[in-house]
Amino acid sequence: MINDKNSQKIVDIIQNFARKHSLFVLAYGTGCGAIEIPPTMTSRYDAERFGIRGAATPRQADVLLITGYLTTKTVKRVIRVYEQMQDPKYVIGFGSCTINGGMYWDSYNTIKVLDRYLPVDIYINGCMPRPEAVIEGFIKLQKKIMEGRAEGAKHYKENLEWYRANQKKVLGPTTPHIQEYNW
Amino acid sequence: MNIIHITLGILLGGAILTYFANKISGVVRDLMFISTIVVAAALFFIKMTPDTVAVFNLGGITLSLGMNHLGLLFSIIILGLAVLAGFYSLPYMKGKDNLGFFYMNYLLSIFGMMGIVMSKDLVSFFIFWEIMTWSSYLIVVYNGNKANKIGIKYILFSALGAYSMLMAIVMVYSQLHSFSIADLSAGFTTMPASYQITIALLLITGFAVKAAMMPLHVWAPDAYSNAPMSYTAMFSGALSKMGVYGLVIVFVTMVSHLPQNFWVRETIAWLGAITAGMATIYAIFQDDAKKLLAYSSVAQLGYIITGVAIGTEISMIAALMLSIVHGMFKANFFMVVGAVERQAGTTDLTVLTGLIRKMPWTFFSALMSAIALAGIPPLVGYVGKWMLYESLISNGNYILVIVIFFASTAGFLYVFKILYSIFLGQEEPEFENVKEAPALMVIPMVIIALLLGFFGAFPGYLLKYIDNALVVMGYPVSQGKWWEMTTLFNAWGNKVSTDLIMYTTITVFVTIAIVLFYRWKNGRYVSTKDISLSGEMPKEDENYSFKLDFYKPFERAISPLLRYKISKYYNEFADGMEAFFDWTRRIYNGNAQTYAIYVITFLVILLLIANNIFTV
Amino acid sequence: MDFLIKTLGAIATIIVAFIVGMLYMGINRKITARVQNRVGPPVWQNYIDALKLVSKKTSVHHGVMQHLAPAFLMISSMGTLLFIPILRGQSWFPNLSYHGDLIFILYFMVLGSLGMALGAGQTGNPNAAIGITRGLSQMVGFEIPWVMALVAMMIQYHTTSISDLMAIQQQHGWLMFQNPLAFLAAILAMLGMFRYSPFDIVGAPAELASGPISEFGGKYLGLMMSSGSIFAFTKLTLYVDLFMGGASNIVVLLIETFTLYLIPMLYGLVSPRYRTEQAIRYFWGWPTVLGLAALVYSVVI
Fold first, then answer.
1. Which of B60, B322, B575, B605 is 20 to 30 A from B296 (CA-CA)?
2. Chain B within 8 Å of A59 (Cβ-Cβ)?
3. pTM (2 decimals)?
4. CA of A101 to nearest chain C CA: how many angstroms apart?
5. Which residues contact C16 (CB under 8 A, 6 or more apart)?
6. CB count in 10 Å sphere of residue C188
7. How many domains is chain B partitioned into structurally?
8. C164 pLDDT higher than 60
9. Residue A143: which CATH number?
């Protein structure tokens, strides 16, 4: 009865509802965009009213919020942090730098398109995006979760080789410590 | 020829034979050793009935021995631990030098302890006491040169205890013209009050040395941690209980009959509590597992001394209960540390790390002992602690109970420290090839661990023996008033049901464990190198475990207390004595004329005094 | 039949404790938000969080002690709850309350912390170990005034049983007025017990990355959250039983426990964080003096 297709659908709806309304955010403050997170979380814009709150470690987090450009040194850590998060997990790319490199587009030591290294569920564009835009992005993510389309982690798992190849290309010989993927 | 002759004969003969068996081969020696213990223990428990008496004639001296229920209680601790630690000892000591000597002393100290609990007169008590002291001294110095200084400390304090005991025995004889303990307890009230208090205090000093009470405890941490662990299990578990045994006798037969209130009970109870508190604090800051456990032993004996000193019915039950349970879990803990030392090669808590997956059974027994040591229900360590608190509260020792509670709560700190440092934390390549200890070492540990759980649910099986012992000492029957098979009562009629506590704990634990194991395959084991620490990736040779300055904030908080260390005063005293004797050396300057002056001066003084005396 | 009713009562007690504890945590978040001039999450946010955490698809653990840590925690939260009388004079809720006394409960409440400490220790995360040493040190701090308050009440009324103390309060009035010093000492100890600011040195998200629970995610974190909320309700009920005479029905119980819950919560809202040694010294300062005074008061009375 539990494995029945209809009951599975109901379970999915309940679970997606819970996931949607409870987003623990690991704000990875890589770039200048991190300065927009405090106003988003605190009194002025108060993201907590949507069930969005900060998480201290990747083990507890649902959303990895990448705020801005990633240097090749940082991207190693970001990948590790992403892989330490528990399924289901989502990535939000924040600012133009994560979309196409932004003002760092011809920099020698930053990555340009985040999507080639990690499966991004939602992009928030702007340089930098205001807290309203960040909240808008979260709401988009919630909608996607409710519809069951936020499947970035599944995509990452299925195309792991492709992602690994891309990661290796940019990280070069400094990749040996990336451990196996924590499902 | 009865069971007392046979047990003591087997132990003494076995000791000597084991020594000579060593000349033949190691296997014969081991077999000799273990069969001596097992046969003696088996015969003792099958054949021994209370009220057996025996008489030894050694030349002109007659030693009278006998067994009562109090002795029986302590012989359960001694022989039970001797069997378990004996089996443990075989693989643990394998390959060490001079083993015939070690095993001979091991058996001799058991012989001494059994003699003590069976002594019916003070002379045999003293003889067996010295046999026990010397054999344990020889084992303390077994580890070689480094241990010599420690051994001197131990034997000095033991000698202090023995001399005060001897002095007390002589005083008893001068008053009563008998060495018998029965005569002593009967005739104690007929002595002059000054003799009564002096005898009691001297005997308490003698026993408090062995029980490591506060100003006399200085030898204990070093001696415990330097003997081989298979003997320390006996040393801390059973041998220190001989001090408790003596204290019980002194408090029951003498202190309770003191005509005036000399504050003996209060003083000793407070010394016990302070011992518990200070030793606990020192245990917290030790970085060596053996040292930590040694201080912890001193602390636990502090509770027992307090219980004995208060001397009400329930506190006596508590003290005896704690004696048995402390014997169990502390012996177990020392065995655990011995197993770790043997397998991993060190007991330094800052070096050891992550052994839980390598030595799971050792960890299990360490965990059970730790819970029992901390006095947490549902294990049996809780029963004695509970009774001690109830007795202190209902007896009006309100501040004492706070001190003891502080010691007990602070005990969690070192309990966690030793478990975490040895077994938990990140795994280290250095300990990759560590294996679980041999079965002969693991089985005794696991047996004790399971017994701790069993007696936690059914403490009545232990309390029955304690009850018998108390009846011998003149207390009323306590079953039904203070305890049932699975229930404990306090002075105000409140109760605790140990079996229900055990069942509730198991039910909740198992239910949640089932919930956790449901959809087990979704969970995954990851290595302890895979930790979420700022996206860092520890390399193979890096270890992030938190080891050094483990309780630094706590140390800062209690730093005013740490300034007082008893051993400092002893050291200053020793330095002072050395300086004094250095000074006295000037008297012997080697000049014959100076010596002549001394002689003349002495004679003149003597004449003056003599004149004075005889004219008056 | 008796056994069946007892079992059902126990399950009902645990469910009530879970619901109420979670609700209190939600109200806490709401009030915190209002104090900070925010809208804040809905009060049922914590139920959603717990549901999400247990419906996580994966969970990693570093070994058996970490895997069983929530079970150890539940022993002390659920177990303690079962040995405390929840409502006065109800056949459903006394559970096992005549089978354990105050001293037993003092020790039983620690078992979970020890199991949790071992589980967190096994993760190998240095933050976890640091958090635990802080937590244990702090526990040594607040247990002293707490035990003093309890001993003061025990010697005043010659009982160590919670149900007896509740019965006594029926005749003599609430203990918080009978021995106000003990009540004050116990309340100050409660600040440390709840680990809100300024005593949130264990979890300290900003410096220790949530401390002991930093490696726990998914179902482990969900169960620990549930255990924490049950334990919060347990502690509050214990305080109500001891100082407010227990409650005769569930509404009174809710009002009384919530009033007590406001104390650590509101105190925490306006406080920064202590360092560990400051926290310990805080508890060994005025709370201990109050506890001693309560002891003297009980002896004199």
1. B575
2. yes
3. 0.90
4. 30
5. C86, C250
6. 24
7. 2
8. yes
9. 3.40.50.12280
